[in-house]
Write a structure and sequence with these properties.
- The chain is of the alpha+beta class.
- The chain is 54% helix and 12% strand.
- The longest helix has 18 residues.
- It is globular, with a radius of gyration of 14 Å.
Length: 99
């Protein structure tokens, strides 16, 4: 699936209106769109975008039930932090993978 990525504070705020959290990004699976706050620092935009991309991968994964399914946010955060660090520390590897 291809998700559209939009940078907009207003759209993130509207999408998260029923939440008590202050989101940096929100994924709207029903319309295949990832919304990212435009007022975040560039490094944080990249990190929250990666986080949302991992959420987009979740429904496509084999994880559909059990404790892994219930702990999606914890696992996505764990993967995001680890993967973002590896990507930042090894950009040549990721460029090579994309060739």
């Amino acid at each position: 699936m291809i998700y559209d990525i939009t940078f907009s504070n207003e759209l993130v705020n509207e999408a998260a209106v029923n939440s008590k959290n202050d989101y940096g990004a929100v994924t709207q699976h029903n319309v295949l769109r990832i919304l990212v706050r435009e007022d975040l620092a560039l490094a944080m935009q990249k990190k929250v975008l990666l986080h949302e991309i991992l959420h987009c991968c979740w429904p496509e994964s084999w994880v559909t039930s059990g404790s892994y399914f219930e702990d999606e946010e914890k696992l996505v955060t764990l993967l995001e932090n680890s993967l973002f660090g590896v990507m930042c520390d090894n950009p040549d590897v990721f460029r090579w993978l994309m060739q």
